Amino acid sequence: MTTPSSRRSLYSLLFISSILFTSFSLISQAQAKPLLVNGLSYSFYSKTCPNLETIVRNHLKKVFTRANWQAPALLVIFFHDCFVQGCDGSLLLDGNPGERDNPLNRGISHKAVQTIDDIREVVQKECGRVVSCADITVLAARDAVFLVINLSSSLLLFSLSFYIYIYSCFL
Fold this sequence. Notes:
The protein has 171 residues and is mainly α. The chain has helices at 4-30, 52-66, 70-82, 110-127, 133-170.
């Protein structure tokens, strides 16, 4: 016979487990490719730079091992570059004064901009000058979020297995 407190603990455990399960379900659904607008393509660089996404992701993995704070900084660059008139890579252009010097862009990390410049260099060595700076910025932001979510997912998996273990102790 179970006591009311152990029953409440079991219900709490089941509730938390269902939240975690729902989160994993939503994450897996979000990874499916959404519908495209005419003129856009998931495989735009498949012939001219087939390893583009791998290059960007591998470079970011190296960067995040020593500077994981750059993930949100790359996302900030994406928003500042793409927010008003679409992505144009203008934050990456040098100028006197440049777009980076605009007071609205003061919070942009120069090291994160350097990371995008480094990625651009690697991409140009591999593929030539066929990939736009705006696309590199978008891929860097997307992969920064992806890499952070993967880290969080592995922590959530640990938490879920811990809760399953605790649940099995009540059986």
